[in-house]
Amino acid sequence: MNISDPTETFRQEARELLEQLEAGLLDLEQDPSNGDLINSAFRALHTIKGSGAMFGFTAVAEFVHEFETAFDQVRKGQSHANAALIEVALDAKDHIHLLIETPEAQVDGGEAILANLRSVIAGGAPSKAVSAAKTPETAASTDPSPVPVVKSTWRLEFYLPSDALIYGTNPILLLEELAQIGPTSVTALTDRVPELKALDPEVPYIGWRVDIEAEDPTAAIDDVFLFLRDNMELSLTRLDTPPASQASAAPAQTTTAAPTEPEPVPAPKAAAPSASASSPSPKPKAPAGADSADRAGASSLRVPAERLDELMDRVGELVIAQARLSQIAGLSSDTALKTIAEELERLSSGLRDTTMGIRMVPIGTLFSRFRRLVHDLSGELGKPIEFITTGEETELDKTMIERLADPLVHLIRNAVDHGLESAEKRAAAGKPAKGVVRLSAVYSGAEVSISVTDDGAGLDTARIRAKAEENGLITPETKLTDQELHHLIFAPGFSTAKEVTSLSGRGVGMDVVKRTIDGLRGTIDVISRPGEGSTMTLRLPLTLAIIDGMLVRVGNGRYTIPLAAVEECVELPEGIEAHAKGRNFLDIRGALVPYLRLREVFGTTAEPEPHQKVVIVSSGEGRVGLVVDQIIGNNQTVIKQLSKLHSGIKSFSGATILGDGTVALILDTAHLVAAGQSYVDRNITGRAA
Amino acid sequence: MTKTILTIDDSASIRQMVAMTLTAAGLDVIEAGNGAEGYDKATTNTVHAILTDLNMPVLNGIEFIRKYRQHPSSKGIPIILLTTESDEELKRQAKEAGATGWIVKPFKQDQLLAIIKKVTGA
Amino acid sequence: MSQAQEHQPESMTALTIRLDDELFAVEAGRVREILDLVPVTEVPNAPDFVGGLINVRGRVVPLADLRVMFGMNRPEPDEDTRIVVMEVDMDGEPTIAGILADKVHDVTVIEAASIEEAPKVGMRWRPEFIKGIGKRNGGFIIIPNMERIFETPGARTAPVTASEERPAS
Q1: Residue A645 and residue C50: Cβ atoms within 8 Å?
Q2: Between A317, A649, A664, which is nearest C58 by CB?
Q3: Which of A196, A267, A516, B59 could make a disulfide contact with B36, Cβ separation 3.0–4.6 Å?
Q4: Touching check for A488 and chain C: CB below 8 Å?
C-alpha cells in the first residue's frame, strides 16, 4: 500500500543520493579526471536540487545550485576537480544532509561553505549564481493589436507540423481547449489535403479556422499551442478591426509565436545530456553507491522495519505450531496426517528462509560509510592511508549491522590513530608510506567474521603490561601469555594512549566495544605482531531468529545445538579416559580435538547413557567435541532471547520451544569452543596422548 | 475508459508524487526508473501518455524518446518531457526527437494535471 | 515492632500467595496470568532462585522461587501449587517472570494504614528484600521488594565452574 509521504520518500532518496555523492567524491579524489565520476556527481547534485525544489526544500535547492554549476563547469572541462573542490563539496554534502534532516531548524554554515566554494572556483569563469528563478508563465505574445475592452471576434487559422500527429498532438483536444476560451465556430481548411493516392494518414493536412469570441485571447491561444508554436503555422487576427489587416486572407501566413521567456541569468547549460551510459562509481569499493541509481529502476519496496519484525514473529509462531503438529503426527498412525505434517514442515521451512532473506542486508552498506571516516582521519592525522574492503556482499541481519557500526568505527579509529605509525616512522622501518587498513567480512559456519587489520606497529605488550599493573588489574608477578596481555585492552578504563587525542584514548573505547559485541553474543579476538600490525576480529552469530538445530539430551535435559556449527557426530570411544590419562582429546582423522563432557558442565546427576555421543562443533578456527547422552534429531528452532536473569550464563545463547511445548536451551557454540580451547591452553603443551 | 500514464523518472519521490497526483484524478499510472525500463513498459503496455524525466541513467529522456518513436506503437502517444531547464536548444532537440511537450521542474500538482489534461483530454 | 515511618507506604491492591507457611503479597496490577504447574526446564549453573524456564503461550519465561531468597523451606509442589506470571522491574526494565507459589489466595486491598516497615533487626529475613509488612485478619502479610530481589547480583550472573573458566576478560 502506497500511503507513505512523497516528502519522506524524497528524504530517503536524498540520503541515498548523498551517500552516492560522497562515495563518488572520494573516488574522484583518487581519479580527478574521471569523466564518469564527474558526471555522476553532477547528476546527484542536479537531482537533489530539482527534487528538493519540488518538495519544498528551497534552502537545499538554492544551496545546491552553486555546486551544481561548479560541477557542470568541471563537466564541460572549464575547470578541474581539484582536492580543494572535493573538500568543499564534502563539506557541502554534510550541510545538505543537515538541511534535509532538519529543515525547520536554522542551519548555519551554509554561507561559509558557499564562500569557500567561490574562492575555490575563483580564477575560473565566475559562476553567475543567481538563484534558480522559476520560469514565469509565457509572457509576451505576438499579436500587436491593442486590447479592446469589448469582446470581439478573432480569427485563428493554423496548420500543424507534419509530425504533430505521430508525436502525440491531438487536434481535437486543441480545438476543445480553444473552445474553453470563448464561443467558437470551427471550419476545416482542406486546401492542403492531397489526393487519396498521395495521402499519408499520419500527416495532418487539415488546417483549421477557428473564430473565437473573446476579449483578448492571445495569451490563452499561446497557451493552447504552447508546445507547437515554434514549428506550426498560425495566424490570429481580429475580425472586427477595420479591414486594414487583411492578414487572415492568406492562409499561408506564418507567424512564429515564439515569446522569449525571460531566461534566468545562470549560463545556459549544455543541452546535450551527460554521458548517460555511465553508472556512477564503477569501482567495486562502493557498491552501495553505485547501485542506488540502478536500484531506483529495479523494483524495490520500502517497508518499515517494525513490519518485518512482526512478520518474523508470525513466522516464528508458525514454526513452533508446525513443530507441535509434526510431533503429534509422528506419534500417530494416520498417514494422511503424517503427509500433511511433512508438507507443512517443508512449506514452513521455505517460508522461514524467504523471510530471513528479507532481513539480510549486505555489510557493504556499512563499509562504504567508513571510507569517509578513513578519509577524514587520514587528513586530520596527516597519515596517508590505503583503505581496502573485502566481503561487502556478506549479508547480516539488518539490526545487527546497525549495532556493529559504532564498534567498527572505534576499531578503525584505533587502527589509524594508534596502530599506524607516522609517515616518518614507517619510512624508517622500511614500510611503504601509505598505511594499510583492511576491513573484511566472511562467513564461517554459523558465524560471520569481521576483521579490521592494520599494518602498523602492533600492540605494545610492555606498555599494556605496565598500564595493567598501574591500574591494579594484575600484579607484577602474574604470568600472562601475549595473547592474554592483548585481551587486557578490553578491560574497563584501560587505555595506553599517552595523550587523550580527540579521536580515541579516552579509555572508554575498547571495553564498550567488547560489551557491545558481547551483547550481540559475539566474540572479539586480537592478533598482533610487533612491528607488523594488528588484526581485530569480531565473530558474530548469524542471529537468525529461526535456525536449524540439532536436539540432544544430556541427563534429563534437552538442548539444541545450531546445526550450522555442527561438523560431525561420532561415538565416544570406550574407556577413552584410561588411554588419555586425564587429557580429554579425541583423535579425529589425525587431528586432536578437545572435548567437553556436558554432563560435567551442567552438573547432571541422572544416569549416564552407556554409549555417549560426541557432537563436534566449530567456531572460528577452533573445534570442540560436546559429549552428550543422546542425539535426538534435527528441528527448526525459533530462537527466544533469555531474560537478564539467565543471559549471563555463558553456555547458552538463547532458548527455544520444542514440539511438545517444553523449553530447551540453545548452546552457545562459540563459548563452548573457547572453553575447550582454554582447557587445551591450560593443560596441554600440544603433545598427543 | 481510464487512461494510463507512464511516468519515467529515476527519482522515486517524483514518481510517487506524480502517481499520487494522477491517480487522484482518476488516471492509472505505470512507473519506470530509467529510459530503458521506460521503453520496455511503453512498448508492452497500453499507455495514453508518457511523462519522462530528462536526466536518467541507462537511457536518458531524449534517447528514450528517440528510441520509442521508432516503435510503431508510439504513434500518436503524447510524450511530455520533464526538465529543469528552459533551454531552447534542449526543447528543440526534444521536439526533434519526438516529444510532444514539456513541463518545467519544479512544477505544482495542478500544473501537471493541466498538462496531462491538455494532451490526453482526461 | 513498629517504627516511626518516614514515608507512608501506599495502600496496595494485592494478590496474596502462600510460600511455605508465610503469606506474601504481590501487586495485583502486575499479574498477567496464573498457571497450574507446567513442565519446568532446568537451567544448568543458574542460581537456585531462578533455576528454571517455562513456556507461557510461546514465550520463554524464567521461573523464580522466592522461597530461596527468604531462606525458607521448599516443599515439593502439590495440587495447590501455581505459577504467578507477572511483570517485574529488573534494572528499571519491565520483564515477565513466573513466581512459584505454594498456594494462591485472593486479591485484596491492603490499606496503607496497616502496612508497616520491616523491622531492621530481629527478623528471619533480610530487611532490604521486604517493602513492608501488612496485617490482615490477625496475621501478617509480607510485601516483598521485587525490584531489590531481582536486582541482587546473585540472581543474575552465573557462578563460573572450573571447566568453563576463561582467561581475564
Answers
A1: yes
A2: A317
A3: B59
A4: yes
CATH topology of domain B4-120: Rossmann fold (3.40.50)
Query: Residues B77-90: what's their mean pLDDT?
Result: 81
> What is the reported pLDDT for A682?
65
- The answer to whether C168 contacts A663, with C-beta atoms less than 8 Å apart, is no
Contact A168 B79 (CB under 8 A): yes
User: B38-52, pLDDT tens digit by residue?
Assistant: 999 999 999 999 999
Instruction: Supply the pLDDT for residue C97.
Output: 93
Residue A357's domain comprises: 305-361
Multiple choice CATH, C12-156, 2.70.98.10, 2.60.40.10, 2.40.50.180, 2.40.110.10: 2.40.50.180
Give C83-122 as a DSSP string.
EEEEEEEETTEEEEEEEEESEEEEEEEE-GGGEEPPPSSS
Do you know the residue count of chain A?
689
Angle, vertex CA C67, rays to CA C64 and CA C72, nearest 5: 165
To the question of pTM greater than 0.80 for the whole model, the response is no
- Same domain for A523 and A621? no
Interface mutation target, options B84, B95, B103, B107, chain A, most CBs of A under 10 Å: B84
What distance in Å separates residue A683's CA from the closest CA in chain C? 12
Domain boundaries, chain C: 12-156
Mean pLDDT of A525-529: 87
| Domain membership flag for residue A255 | no
Interface-testing mutation among C69, C99, C163, with chain A (most A C-beta atoms within 10 A): C163
Confidence of residue A51 (pLDDT cuts 50, 70, 90): confident
Per the DSSP assignment, residues forming a β-bridge with A213 are A153
> What are A207-233's pLDDT values in tens digits?
999 998 888 888 888 888 888 887 888
What are the phi and psi torsion angles at A399 (to 5°)?
-65, -35
By the 10 Å C-beta count (0-12 exposed, 13-18 middle, 19+ buried), A127 is classed as buried
